[in-house]
C-alpha cells in the first residue's frame, strides 16, 4: 500500500510542475513521518549519508572533465582525428559524430556534455553540407547516450553504490555494449546516407592522418589514462576522474587554451549539474529506503515468483517497464528508484548482476530520447535553439535502433558479462 500511496502523492506533486527533486522530497517527508515515524532530522542525516560516499564523488569530477574537454578544445581534436579516419564513409559527418561521441563517452559519463562538446561542433557542419537539421540534431541526441553506457558511466556508478557491485567491473560490463550500440548507429547512418545521397567528408592521405593523429594525441591520451589507470590497478574510478580533471586543467592552462573566465565557467556549470544530480540522488535514495523499510522489494519478489513466470517472460516485462518509465522519468531517477526494487527480483531469477546493470543502463539510454520527457531531446533543443518537436519528429529511427539493442543485451547476457568475467570481476 505504501508504494501505491507514494506513487500517487509523487504524481500529484509533479503534475503541479514542481521540479522532480521537490516532488521526491515532499513524498519522502510524508511517508517517512507517517509510515516510518522517522524524525526530519534523521531524514536529513540519511540524505547526507547518501552523498557521503567515495564512489559517488566520481560523479562531479567526470562531469567537470567533460566541461574542461569542451573549454580546452580537446573535443575539437577528437573530432579531427575521427573525421580523418572515418569521414570518407557514406554519411561521413554523421559517422564522425557517432565515433567522436563514443571516444568522448570514455572520458565523461554525461550524455548532455557530449551533445554540448561534440554535437555543437559537428552538427552545424552536417547542416551546412546538406544533412536535414532535424536528423542531424536527432543523431546528436541519440548518439550522446553512448556516453551513458560506455565507461565511465554515471548510472553504473550509482548502480554500484546501491548494490555494492564492483564499479570497475560494471565499467567493463558496459564497454562491449557501448561499442555495439555505436556500431549500430554508424551502420544506420551509412544506410541513410546511401539512400538520400548525403555527402562524404574529405578523403585524407595516410600522411595527413598521421599528422592529425599526432596533434590529437593529448585528447586521445585522456581516455587511455582514465580507463588504463582503472584497469591497470593504478587508481580507483573516483581517483581516475580526479586525474582526468587535473590532466585537462594542466593541458588547458599550460597550453594557454584555457582562460581564467573559461575555467570559472567550467567549474560553475559542473557545480550546477552536480547539484541537480545530487539533489535527485539524496531524495530518491531516501524514497528507496522507505520502500525497503516497508518490505516492498520482498513483496514484489514473493508475488513475481508466485506468478510462475519464466525468466524470458519476466525480462520482457522488465523491458516494457523501462520503456514506459522512460517516457516520464529522468535518468538518475530511473536508476535510483528501480534498482533497489528490481535487484532482489533479478537475483531470484538468476540474472547476473552485471547483466542487470547493463539492462538497466540501456533502459536509461532509451529513456534519454523517449518523448515526452527524454532529457536529451530537451537538452538538444536548448543547446541548438530549435523546437523539441523538430527533434521528436526525427528521432524515430534512432529510437527503433536503441530498442532493438535493448532486446539484444537483455536476451544475450554474454554481451555484458563476458568482459568483466574475463577480467576476474
Number of helices: 23
Shape: globular
Main β-sheet, in a few words? none
Radius of gyration: 21 Å
Number of strands: 0
Order of helices and strands: HHHHHHHHHHHHHHHHHHHHHHH
Give the uncertain stretches in residue-range form: none
Give the termini distance in whole angstroms: 38 Å
How confident is the prediction overall: mean pLDDT? Answer: 82
Structural class: mainly alpha
What percent of the residues sit in helical stretches (DSSP H or I)?
over 70%
Q: How many discrete structural domains?
A: 1
Strand content: under 5%
Task: Write up what this structure looks like.
It is built from 23 helices and no strands. It is globular and about 70 Å long. 79% of the residues lie in helices and 0% in strands. The protein is mainly alpha-helical and 425 residues long. The chain has one domain.
Index terms:
globular, 425 residues, single chain, mainly alpha
TL;DR?
This protein is an all-alpha fold. It has helices at residues 2-15, 20-36, 40-51, 58-71, 74-86, 92-105, 111-128, 133-143, 146-149, 154-163, 167-196, 206-215, 217-231, 237-254, 260-293, 296-306, 311-326, 331-348, 353-367, 375-384, 388-393, 396-411, 414-422.
Amino acid at each position: 500500500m505504501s508504494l501505491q500511496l507514494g506513487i500517487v502523492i509523487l504524481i500529484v506533486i509533479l503534475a503541479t510542475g514542481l521540479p522532480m527533486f521537490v516532488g521526491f522530497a515532499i513524498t519522502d517527508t510524508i511517508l517517512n513521518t507517517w509510515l516510518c515515524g522517522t524524525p526530519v532530522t534523521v531524514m536529513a542525516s540519511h540524505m547526507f549519508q547518501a552523498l557521503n560516499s567515495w564512489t559517488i564523488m566520481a560523479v562531479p569530477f567526470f562531469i567537470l572533465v567533460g566541461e574542461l574537454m569542451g573549454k580546452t578544445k580537446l573535443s575539437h581534436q577528437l573530432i579531427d582525428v575521427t573525421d580523418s579516419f572515418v569521414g570518407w564513409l557514406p554519411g561521413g559527418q554523421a559517422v564522425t559524430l557517432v565515433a567522436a561521441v563514443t571516444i568522448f563517452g570514455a572520458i565523461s559519463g554525461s550524455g548532455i556534455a557530449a551533445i554540448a562538446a561534440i554535437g555543437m561542433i559537428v552538427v552545424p557542419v552536417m547542416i551546412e553540407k546538406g544533412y536535414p537539421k532535424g536528423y542531424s540534431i536527432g543523431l546528436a541526441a541519440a548518439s550522446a547516450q553512448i556516453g551513458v553506457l560506455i565507461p565511465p558511466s554515471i548510472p553504473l556508478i550509482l548502480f554500484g553504490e546501491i548494490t555494492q557491485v564492483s564499479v570497475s567491473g560494471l565499467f567493463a560490463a558496459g564497454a562491449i555494449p557501448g561499442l555495439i550500440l555505436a556500431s549500430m548507429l554508424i551502420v544506420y547512418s551509412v544506410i541513410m546516407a546511401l539512400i538520400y545521397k548525403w555527402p562524404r567528408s574529405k578523403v585524407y592521405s595516410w600522411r595527413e592522418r598521421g599528422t592529425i593523429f599526432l596533434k590529437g594525441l593529448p585528447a586521445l591520451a585522456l581516455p587511455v589514462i582514465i580507463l588504463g589507470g582503472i584497469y591497470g590497478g593504478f587508481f580507483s574510478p573516483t581517483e581516475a576522474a580526479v586525474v582526468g580533471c587535473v590532466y585537462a586543467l594542466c593541458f588547458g592552462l599550460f597550453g594557454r587554451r584555457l582562460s581564467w573566465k573559461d575555467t570559472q565557467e567550467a567549474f560553475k556549470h559542473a557545480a550546477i549539474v552536480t547539484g541537480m544530480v545530487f539533489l535527485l540522488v539524496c531524495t530518491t535514495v531516501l524514497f528507496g529506503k522507505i520502500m525497503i523499510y516497508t518490505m516492498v522489494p520482498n513483496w514484489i519478489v514473493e508475488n513475481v515468483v508466485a506468478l510462475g513466470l519464466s525468466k524470458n517472460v519476466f525480462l520482457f516485462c522488465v523491458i516494457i517497464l523501462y520503456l514506459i518509465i522512460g517516457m516520464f522519468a529522468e535518468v538518475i531517477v530511473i536508476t535510483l528508484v528501480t534498482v533497489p526494487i528490481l535487484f532482489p527480483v533479478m537475483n531470484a531469477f538468476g540474472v547476473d548482476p552485471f547483466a542487470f546493470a547493463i539492462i538497466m543502463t540501456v533502459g536509461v539510454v532509451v529513456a534519454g530520447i523517449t518523448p515526452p520527457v527524454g532529457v536529451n531531446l530537451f537538452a538538444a533543443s536548448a543547446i541548438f535553439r530549435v523546437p523539441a518537436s523538430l527533434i521528436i519528429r526525427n528521432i524515430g529511427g534512432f529510437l527503433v535502433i536503441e530498442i532493438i539493442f535493448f532486446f539484444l543485451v537483455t536476451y544475450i547476457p554474454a554481451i555484458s558479462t563476458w568482459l568483466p568475467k574475463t577480467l576476474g570481476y
